[in-house]
Structure formats: C-alpha cells, structure tokens
C-alpha cells in the first residue's frame, strides 16, 4: 500500500480567545501528521476565519480555493488542526472528495500506532470508540484490524463498515472488562513495588521534550527515543543507581500535548498514575523550542487536571541546551543556576545530568524518623531486610527477641510493615 498524501489546515478562528499562536501550532500539527509512518505530509497552511461556519467550518470561497489546491497536489487526506463536528466532516469530505481527520482523530490514530502493552491497546480502543460514538458512527473496523492504526487513515477502515451505538456500547463493555483484568494485574505489580523502598521518580513533559533520551542516559536502557511526537506511549520503568549512589525507580511517561483529547486524558489516567504515585516529578522541557513557555504551561495544567499533589517535589529540567546558540546557552545556564528547582542539561551529551542526580538525591533523602523495633529471634527475614536497607543504628539481643534502633524514612517504614 502506497503512502497517503496529507495536507494540514490550522484554522485560526479570531473569535476564539484561547487560540494558540498559529505558525507554531501549524508546525506541531504537521509534525503530528509526520508521526504516522504511512502519511506523507505534503504541505499545510493557516486559514484565518472570523468565526467557524456551523455546517462547513470554512466559508464557501475558501472551500472552493482549497478544493482546487488539494486537487492540484493530489491530496488523499486533510488533517484539520482543531475540532470538527460530524456534520462539518461529512460536508467537507463531500466537497473535497477526500478523507478528513480532526486533531482528536489524528492523535488517537498515533496513540494506536504507538501502543505496545495490552493496557495501552485497550485504552486506545476505548478512547477511539468513545470518540466515534459521538460522531454517530463512522468505520470502526480497527476492531479487526491487521495494522496498528485505527482505520481512519487507510487500510481496513476503507471498507466503512457501519455500526450502531448499541454495538459500540457492547464493545466498550467488553473492553472495560478486559481492562479491569489488566489493571488488577498492574495493581499487583504496583503492590509488589511498594515493598521495595526505592522512591519513584516520574519524567513528565511535552511530547518530544527529550524524556526518553534522558531516561536512556540515566538508566542505560534502550527506550525508543526519536525526534518524533509521541515516540513513547506506554510507561517504562527501570531501577537505576544514580551517580550519587542512591537507588530509584525511574518512570518514562507519555508526552503531554496541548488540547489533548478529553477521551485520552480519561482513558490514560491509569497509564499516567505512575505520575500520581511518584515521590518526585521531573518536568523535562525542550528549552530550545520557540514555544517552550507555552508547552510548560500545558504540562502544568495537565498535571493539575490529573490531580497531582502540589506537595510532591518537582524539578524543572531545561533540556536540549546543546541546541541553543552559545550566547543563549550561557544565558539559560546562568538563569537556571539562579532559579530554585531548575537545572539546565543536555540529555544527548550528558552535560548537567550528574547535577540532576545530586538534586534528585537531595530531594529524596526524606526526613528520617527514629524508632525502636522489637523482633522475635525467629523472624530473621525482617531483621535481614532492615540491615540490607542500612537503617539499623543499634542492636541489642534479648532472651526472646531483638531490640533494634532504626533511623528510616516514611517509605521504608511503610515497606517494612508490608513485609
């Protein structure tokens, strides 16, 4: 099957007070399209509108102009960087004689292509069905697909099998039951991890900020790290010994993006719960990106939506300083050094990563509590665990038991009680 030729349109609607800067938004939308391997993004443009037309989104003159352009460059698929109603989609497809995807549909397609774990696949399928249900049902042959995508772009979806809402609801119920089993297994794994008294550090950030490159730098793992939006979807976790000697569990999470479809925020809550369980959140920013401040605001907004405890410590990492011009790089390094909780690094060449490890260690060395424990002589397992953790400050043997003085963190105390 050949490449699908795509054209990207970013509608800049003047009446929308929350609208984004159009040029960077278009560039991001084109990068989103390029993230799908079967798409060839031929070009794109910003279309300025006073307001959205309810039936066609664009005015009739603009539709005719675009129809001619799309025909000239032989476009198969139009990507609209925004929300398109089912009526608008049907009318535009009829006018232009092409397929059409809005931002939500495109992100769902990318997520489906990236999902690797069983949980990730189920989450995407549920999000896609919820999305399609609101659109009075288009093709949803992705349920019997042979490729990774959802069938919106090409392949099996071209057969356009029609399904009614009851069929979608039945499928959603079946997926929920499957997901419940997967989540239960995940909870068992998390409970097992809770007994390991190593703090969890979650890497979060806008998509393509360099989280996976930093993860690989710190763990020696080979996680997919490409200059591509949503290169990582399912969370990856590794135990890692920092250069300071402290052992942590590092989690690489899915990248955030502005206007993330609400279906995905809900569906990926379980995937992102590693962030909710984290002892430390490391917010990785692409400091060389022209929209870095706006991206950072989007990430903070999504963390708030997820319900992250504001008391959980955070480090802001200004990544990709190697891409800055020398003068800008020096300015960023100086500003980061003067700002609490901010570090400038290059995950690619490793500069600043040791300083990041030291900052992580400082924040994770919790206030220690002092306590006396009484352990029966027969309970050698607990005694051995305490010595392995290095928390015993004094030991006195009695006739029937052993009295241990310990200095430990709240996490170690909880892990000990879970033994």
From TrEMBL:
Entry binding sites for GTP: 205-212, 230-234, 252-255, 319-322, 346-348
Keyword Acyltransferase: yes
Domain of life: Bacteria
SUPFAM superfamilies: P-loop containing nucleoside triphosphate hydrolases (SSF52540)
Residues that bind Mg(2+): 212, 232
Subcellular location: Cytoplasm
GO cellular component: cytoplasm
Alphabetically ordered keywords of this record: Acyltransferase, Cytoplasm, GTP-binding, Magnesium, Metal-binding, Nucleotide-binding, Transferase
Cofactors demanded by this protein: Mg(2+)
Gene Ontology molecular function, alphabetical: acyltransferase activity; GTP binding; GTPase activity; metal ion binding; ribosome binding
Pfam families to which the protein is assigned, alphabetical: GTP-bdg_M (PF16360), GTP-bdg_N (PF13167), HflX_C (PF19275), MMR_HSR1 (PF01926)
The keyword Nucleotide-binding is annotated on this UniProt entry: yes
Residue ranges constituting the Hflx-type G domain according to the UniProt record: 199-367
Job description of the protein: GTPase that associates with the 50S ribosomal subunit and may have a role during protein synthesis or ribosome biogenesis.
PANTHER family: GTP-BINDING PROTEIN 6-RELATED, GTP-BINDING PROTEIN HFLX
Subunit structure and binding partners: Monomer. Associates with the 50S ribosomal subunit.
Recorded family membership: Belongs to the TRAFAC class OBG-HflX-like GTPase superfamily. HflX GTPase family.
Name used for this protein in its record: GTPase HflX
The encoding gene: hflX
